[in-house]
């Protein structure tokens, strides 16, 4: 081990290698502060050749490698947990190598933060259409490795749909050069799609070619009051029919979530005169140079809205978005919650929200469910609050895992997933192993063992191996 | 072997099993008539349980299984070539199990022909946006397994982008149930994307959940005369900027391809008054209820067109499309050609068409290159005609492989692919092995061996194994 660390220190130099405890400390704690990890060193290669050197050396020594980008995982997917592990930070590799407006594509190194991708795309008269709250920290490598989502998935899809090419160092140290970003390429197994969402367990992504779309023209933002969640879904489908692909966001907010925001977030106010059981926030985007999307007429024509308001300025649009984006903060101020990042088929979500809420509140006396988010993707944040008057921390320490297992069972019975956009990481691995169907698990294990026979890539994350019977 | 066939005959019954040579004959010849295969029996299961029975029995006996849908492969990807092989036809499994307009999704069994998918989607007020010439024969299982393309890929992507879920029998006979068609699902390796494009080498797809899009409103079809291929690409990007995602087809036709059509196809006539070196056929689609896309104004505003015509009726639109769709037939009437289904990055295609044409015509005296097709996807049909006066058959027997290797070398040097939409199959496997980078091949072999250790699934197709050094 000492020999390995010496070799790495020599090759990577002082900017690329540290085994200092204080220097490593920030990168050993996960984003949500749930876990404090362990590692032998933090290596920060300057280029893909140095990444290949690190991985090959680690493979030869049988030492774990934990790739890390912005360290913004919600499921501790980038937290090392082995005293011999190497944290492989991609943060020094943050160049946008190439922007090609004619190909509607740019190539960014793994350590490029999302915000810089947005800026580079805009400078070329294009747009990169995925965004999320952590855009100032989250990096391209992590976004691809976790197939990140966000509030704009409805029209252009999650990260997986926006990846045109990948360059990666495989677990044997070999370089996979898949950056060519062809629009059509039918040469067998799509290794790019296999690496996307693999959470660093099959190799280290060093760069990605990302899809750009035409620059946006004006956006139209609406806030609509509705009687039922089912009405929200019908509204979405009718608006899609009426406006083509113009609807980019369609977020559902129940009355209790809006109340929390209005109570806890300064400067917010109710957008509609009366109360409604359900609200949706809608954003439609017109092409550049085209007139704004006539969202008001389209909403009126459905006859579904109890009331609606269209933002008449960017400031008003931002204020409506702030209501949606402040829900998590308002919840946090209000108290602890067990959070679940779940999805079911879109058509089943309105019913699921009502039935699962009732089932949870019946099973755990006094708890409250607040579910909100990406209705158009069939993906909501399903948060369970402790009973009023209970000591939040003590209650969740005792009941948290039971509550989550109950929620995951309901989701699984509805044909859904316990991870819609955050991934599995370390925190959900046991639940994934408990709930996944055997054929899926066996195939994942077989692929993992085939590409990483030494098991050095991000061990303990995503793939439940310990409990594994082998495929054959 | 006799024992295996007896067991299969008993389980599948007379509709599901035959070893009769005459009955098997049509399914032993590939679509282009290039290859006559061999097999022990043709099995046609009625449901997924029977598929699982066949695969498990074949796995136990070590007998090859060749999945077959419409048998329309352009690369002999569904042709059995082993006297012991079982042709596994999915044609009896042709039910559309479910159409869910609210989920923008339908579930079709593997043997459903593409035309029936179109009909089912339309009946539900939706649209399945992929189409191709063989839509009356090609089946869902084959379309997914080969990641099929076509003329409408520009906006909605190839088959891979339209697959929301897959149900498949894996090589050990286990059932992978991945039909739930969640819009967001981050549970690790995407086995659906691994099976899509795998050409039946990793299992048998028994059903797929397919993405639907809103029903189309009016289409606007234009034919534009241009001075250069580069102008065509600039035109495409400007129209995309001006019309959002409305452009669904953008096909390039050089003067010589149009001349062939006008000469050989009865009832065709030149759409523009004068001759132009390049033409593009453009189709833009408006949402239902929306006004037609103002394609004429948008084209005029670019200042790039030498001349242009907009179809003013469906009959005129069909006539313009007929010019494009008749090129292959016109070529066939005119004489033999070595055909290449290639792609390079979109921005490189105008230059590649000129330079590769010049290189081929310089290297092989007297040949003529005709390249046309999906410019917006960076994918053209690059066809090389024998020298005038030569005996076509004799010339291609002697020079065909040399010509194709030369073309593939040019494509590879340009960062492109020797298979844009047809796949590898049997016909391109040797060229794929020659040109693929070692890391890609090693990873593909490792995955193939991991999921199909007995090598029973469609052996000889796609994955070059014989020449393989192992990964580790």
**Percentage beta strand of chain A:** 15-25%
Largest interface: A-B, 96 and 96 residues
The best one-word shape of chain A is globular
How large is the radius of gyration of chain A? 23 Å
Tell me the CATH architecture of the largest domain in chain A. Answer: 2-Layer Sandwich
Domain FAD-binding PCMH-type (chains A, B): 35-215
Pfam families (chains A, B): FAD-oxidase_C, FAD_binding_4
Protein name (chains A, B): FAD-binding oxidoreductase
Keywords (chains A, B): FAD, Flavoprotein
Please provide a written account of the structure.
The structure is a homodimer of 472-residue chains. Chain A is an alpha+beta fold and 472 residues long. Helix content of chain A is 37%, strand content 21%. The first copy, chain A, has helices at residues 2-16, 21-24, 48-61, 114-123, 140-145, 153-156, 159-162, 191-195, 229-243, 255-264, 295-302, 314-325, 327-334, 349-363, 392-413, 429-435, 438-451, and strands at residues 17-18, 41-43, 65-68, 86-89, 96-100, 105-109, 126-127, 163-169, 175-178, 204-211, 213-214, 216-226, 247-254, 278-287, 307-310, 337-338, 341-343, 368-374, 379-385. In chain A, the strands form five sheets. Chain A has a five-stranded antiparallel sheet. A four-stranded mixed sheet of chain A has the order 1-2-4-3. A four-stranded antiparallel sheet of chain A has the order 13-14-12-15, with helices on both faces. Chain A starts with a helix and ends in a 21-residue tail after the last helix. Residues 466-472 of chain A have low confidence and may be disordered. Chains A and B meet through strand 9, helix 8, helix 9 and helix 17 of A and strand 9, helix 8, helix 9 and helix 17 of B. Chains A, B: Residues 35-215 form the FAD-binding PCMH-type domain. Chains A, B: Keywords: FAD, Flavoprotein. Chains A, B: It holds the Pfam family FAD-oxidase_C. Chains A, B: It comes from Sphingomonas quercus.
């Amino acid at each position: 081990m000492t020999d390995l660390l010496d070799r790495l220190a020599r090759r990577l130099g002082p900017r690329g290698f540290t085994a200092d405890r204080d220097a490593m400390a920030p990168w050993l704690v996960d984003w949500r502060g749930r876990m404090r990890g362990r590692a032998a060193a933090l290596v920060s290669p300057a280029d893909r050749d140095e990444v290949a050197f690190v991985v090959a050396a680690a493979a030869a020594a049988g030492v774990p490698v934990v790739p890390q980008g912005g360290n913004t995982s919600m499921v501790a997917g980038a937290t090392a947990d082995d005293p011999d592990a190497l944290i492989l930070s991609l943060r020094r590799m943050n160049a946008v190598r190439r922007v090609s407006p004619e190909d509607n594509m740019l190539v960014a190194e793994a350590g490029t933060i999302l915000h810089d991708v947005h800026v580079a795309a805009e400078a070329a008269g294009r747009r990169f259409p995925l965004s999320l709250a952590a855009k100032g920290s989250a990096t391209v490598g992590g976004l691809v490795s976790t197939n990140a989502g966000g509030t704009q998935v409805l029209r252009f899809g999650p990260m997986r749909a926006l990846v045109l090419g990948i360059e990666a160092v495989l677990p044997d140290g070999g370089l996979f050069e898949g950056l060519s970003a062809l629009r059509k390429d039918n040469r067998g197994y799509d290794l790019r799609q296999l690496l996307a969402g693999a959470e660093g367990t099959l190799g280290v992504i060093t760069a990605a070619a990302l899809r750009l779309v035409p620059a946006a023209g004006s956006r139209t933002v609406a806030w609509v009051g509705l009687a039922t969640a089912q009405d929200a879904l019908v509204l979405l489908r009718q608006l899609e029919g009426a406006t083509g692909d113009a609807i980019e966001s369609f977020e559902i907010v129940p009355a209790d979530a809006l109340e929390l925001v209005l109570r806890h977030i300064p400067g917010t106010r109710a957008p509609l005169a009366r109360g409604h059981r359900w609200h949706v926030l809608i954003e439609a985007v017109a092409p550049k140079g085209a007139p704004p999307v006539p969202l008001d007429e389209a909403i009126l024509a459905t006859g579904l809205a109890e009331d609606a308001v269209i933002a008449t300025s960017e400031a008003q649009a931002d204020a409506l978005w702030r209501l949606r984006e402040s829900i998590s903060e308002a919840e946090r101020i209000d108290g602890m919650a067990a959070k679940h990042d779940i999805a079911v088929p879109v058509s089943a979500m309105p019913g699921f929200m009502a039935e699962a809420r009732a089932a949870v509140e019946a099973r755990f006396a006094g708890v409250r469910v607040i579910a909100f988010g990406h209705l158009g993707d069939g993906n909501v944040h399903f948060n369970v609050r402790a009973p009023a008057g209970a000591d939040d921390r003590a209650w969740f320490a005792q009941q948290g895992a039971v509550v989550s297992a109950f929620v995951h069972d309901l989701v699984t019975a509805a044909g859904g997933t316990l991870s819609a956009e955050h991934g599995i990481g370390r925190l959900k691995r046991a639940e994934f192993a408990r709930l996944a169907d055997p054929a899926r698990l066996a195939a994942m294990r077989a692929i993992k063992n085939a590409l990483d026979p030494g098991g050095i890539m991000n061990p303990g994350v995503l793939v439940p191996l310990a409990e594994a019977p082998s495929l054959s």
